[in-house]
Amino acid sequence: MADMHPHDYSNLPGTPSPLLSQAKSRLVMVAGAFLLGYLAITLRAADLTLLRSKPQAEIAKAEDVRPLTRPLRGAIVDRNGELMATSLSMPSLYADATITENAEQEAKELAAILQDEDAAEIQKRLSSGKHFVWIARNITPKQEYAINALGHPDLGFQDEDRRIYPNAELAAHITGYTDVDGNGIAGIEKSFDKQLTEGAKPVQLTIDLRVQHLLHRELEDSVRKFHAKAGVGMVMDVNTGEIIAMVSLPDFDPLHPGDAPDDARFNRATLGVFEMGSTFKLFSTAAALDSGEVHFGSRFDASEPIHYGRFTINDYHAKKRVLSVPEIFIYSSNIGTAKMATALGPSGLKDFYERLGFFEAAPVELPERGNPLYPKPWRAINTLTASFGHGVAVSPLHLMRAASALVNGGTLVTPTIVKPEKTRISLESGGERVIKPQTSQQIRQLLELVVAGGTGEKAYVEGYNVGGKTGTAEKNKDGRYEENSLLSSFIGVFPIDNPRYAVLAMLDEPQGIPESKGFATGGWTAAPVVASVISQLGPLYHMAPDLETRDITRDMSMYLRDIEEGKALASIGADR
Predict the structure, then answer these.
(1) How would CATH label the architecture of 212-564?
(2) Of 402, 400, 366, 416, nearest in space to 505 by CA
């Protein structure tokens, strides 16, 4: 006890050590530093997300910063579920140009990898000083790997969907295409842009890619063979309005629409409007017969041209005699058709055309729909010329819709290219009636005669009873009809006894060749296309051929006489 200082308490029990106190002080300082750092981070995060939310949103909008995640664009499929358009996730390259160190050198390196991109343009973007600039969209994994190896901190990648069209140009005017950001620009891509963007279930079309392929092939061969400028083809179910195939030539690759000229991207099947020529005799004849003013046995003098003011109406292959209604139709007499139309009265034909939908855009789920052209006001001369297809311009889709109504029993169906979720309304329960069932039966009989012994003989298909009508119209250029600029077409229906499908082929300015004896008319150029399509479509759809095909070699004059007397009408479909 003698050695202990009287005031030294360091060794007494419960007295804190100086070293321990020093350690506690240091712990408090370290904890305080962590707390201040955490607080700083929290304040910075609040500043970026809350206080500066509006400026950042504006920057994102101004510099094209897209959402990092969104569903892949939905698929487009044909009636059998085959892909027509789909999307794949692919990387896109962007840069933060505010931290680019050497824009010129980096641009050269990137251009060597990307190949399709211009080094000068890349350098311009890297020198922009923007936080976000696109360098290249939808690059390959190999390119992504090579760019990553460069090690530039200003570069980054963002996954985007790239639209793929497995069938290339085969159905380009139907599917349409998108822009680089995946927005629908044309066709189904545009019409159903919202649904496709949401990535929901696929949009299923009525198109059958098998039929689309064979129609495209046959039409393309004919366009090439007759040196035509363009062509249109279509297959439609006459009872439901479902479009099975639709082709417009020339066409384009929807993956690179910008590389195609405007003419190739133009959908002639729905957007183009044309004076259809003699195919319109189908409608004027139906109007005359349905009115009750004209009958099969009615006769009209076609021995002389019709003169009306400065207009003269002639026949291409004039018979120069009195013709019955079936003969007028079979021989495609302009004179006889015009005289039939006058029996309807001043507005009779105009009113009928309006009921067929010829004065408004055809209803279909495509944005490319042409508005018809027709006389305003409608004068007496227009009744004459419009009866054989002059002065009224409609789209090929208008033609198919109206023709379907005349052969399906008289009901005007709504064309559709999108497969309905439920069964479409049947003819018995929906659709506007435009002609009587008996008139429809008469029209089918006339169409069969055109193929049996008229201008459509080359549409004959053994085993499938085909009916149809040719059309050869001189194109109107600068107010004048050009004799050597033809729009040649043929619309066929089969089987004519109980029609299921209508098939259209149309060639723009075909040229006569030795094989066609120099002719470029619809009977020579378009009818064979329809025959070829029907000969393949029938077996494809398991439509058994008629083994008792009617004999078309029978003397036509005898059959025409029977028709005029009403004998053949009741027995259409019977062996003759």
Answers:
(1) 3-Layer(aba) Sandwich (3.40)
(2) 400
150 phi/psi in degrees, rounded to 5: -65, -30
Active site residue 278: yes
The answer to whether the CB of 476 falls within 8 A of the CB of 275 is yes
Q: Which tokens sit at 401?
A: 């819709």
The residues near 461 (Cβ < 8 Å, ≥ 6 apart) are 494, 531, 534, 535, 538
> Strand, coil or helix: what is 230?
strand
Q: Report the distance separating Cα 15 and Cα 11, nearest Å.
A: 7
Give me the residue label for tokens 């009866």.
Answer: 387
Please give the residue that has the higher pLDDT: either 546 or 529: 529
What's the pLDDT tens digit per position in 80-104? 999 999 998 888 899 999 999 999 9
Q: Judging by beta carbons within 10 Å of its beta carbon (0-12, 13-18, 19+), is residue 393 exposed, middle or buried?
A: buried
At 196, which helix (H) or strand (E)?
Answer: helix 193-197
Token pair recorded at residue 62? 């101004």
What are the extents of the domains in the chain?
72-88+164-205, 212-564
Do 212-564 and 72-88+164-205 fall under one CATH topology? no
List the structure tokens of 437. 């069932």
Q: What is the pLDDT of residue 71?
A: 81
Cβ 306 vs Cβ 335: under 8 Å? yes
Contact between 336 and 321 under an 8 Å Cβ cutoff? The reply is no
Tokens of 210: 């098998």
Terminal alpha carbon distance of the chain: 146
Q: Running DSSP on this structure, what letter comes out for residue 205?
A: B
Catalytic choice (92, 222, 248, 278): 278
What is the CATH superfamily name and number for domain 72-88+164-205?
Penicillin-binding protein 2a (Domain 2) (3.90.1310.10)
Per DSSP, the residues of 560-576 read HHHHHTTTTTTTTTS--
Closest CA to 396 of 317, 279, 475, 226: 279
Give how far Cα 125 sits from Cα of 61, 129, 375, Å: 17, 8, 55
- Phi/psi for 196 (5° steps) reads -70, -35
pLDDT at 7 over 50: no
Helix (H, G, I), strand (E, B) or coil at 301: strand
Q: Please report the pLDDT score of residue 392 as a whole number.
A: 96
Helix (H, G, I), strand (E, B) or coil at 171: helix
